[in-house]
């Protein structure tokens, strides 16, 4: 591994990022074809079910790929899925070397792609910028390892940690630019989760505006089936799916919700963590890769209590609300000690207008092996 390898791999990871929201549940992958110290072709996996990054990069390189080095964010696949094996394309192109950031843990690949290339005489190296690659594809790695989606938690709050005044007024704590960033985030999600309290108080749409690459399912935790037919969620059910998570209901309540266009998913009436676990299992079964928890505080707190949060997106406005009765973003049981508190391993901050966008995550994908 050389500094030059790192540089080309970094470009492959940058290209992979272009696929976010478009390729899930597939991984984000970029590829760069280098010959005589120059990029002769590059590409990324652009859309689920379409050509993989290596194929796009090889097409761009043409004959210049013969004898070249291919840098790719993930071990090339060696099986027939939605598309033919990338190992076959690399061998047909006559590349001399393949450098992968990490092995693909998908069972039908899992080292076999690299082995096939080596057996055919291609020089293969794996592990260049692996930590960065695992961070990039943490949602993919989690879905494979746990069969559950990657959980993003989002809230907007004042500088003193309040998400509403004591009277419940919350529109708007964050500025318009911050809210637009939230819509961009929503557009990359498979589901957006909120509690019935928030839905009844705010009557949200929970859609991305303008639409993003994905159309998230709106999920409402509504144990007693209280969602009214006048809700904007119900009125917009033709635009985006609606899933109501309830305790077992009477047939008449369930039928009413279904006639409103909602799908009903019943969970045992135990505690919040049981609901969280059952919901994540169900969404993972549907191969949802990223979900966004938008609140309110009790819902966010229940996911935190269940140790289910992977990444946080916090928008902090420069205002002070005060008041012991004003709501904070996280309810639930919470940590008993500081040592047991939820601690993020990495974070970054960005100023958006007058707000501060604070973004952090746990692990680096290494916790999903």
Which terms summarize this structure?
five-stranded mixed β-sheet; 369 residues; 12 helices; alpha/beta; 14 strands
Q: Assign a percent range to the helix content.
A: 25-40%
Q: What sequence of helices (H) and strands (E) makes up the elements?
A: HEEHEHEHEHHEHEHEHEHEHEHEEE
Helix-and-strand structural type: alpha/beta
* Strand order across the largest sheet: 10-9-8-7-11-6-12-14-13
Regions with little confidence, pLDDT below 50 for 5+ residues: none
Mean pLDDT: 94
| CA radius of gyration | 23 Å
- Profile the largest sheet: 9 strands, mixed
Tally of helical runs: 12
Strand content: 15-25%
First-residue to last-residue Cα separation? 24 Å
Number of strands: 14
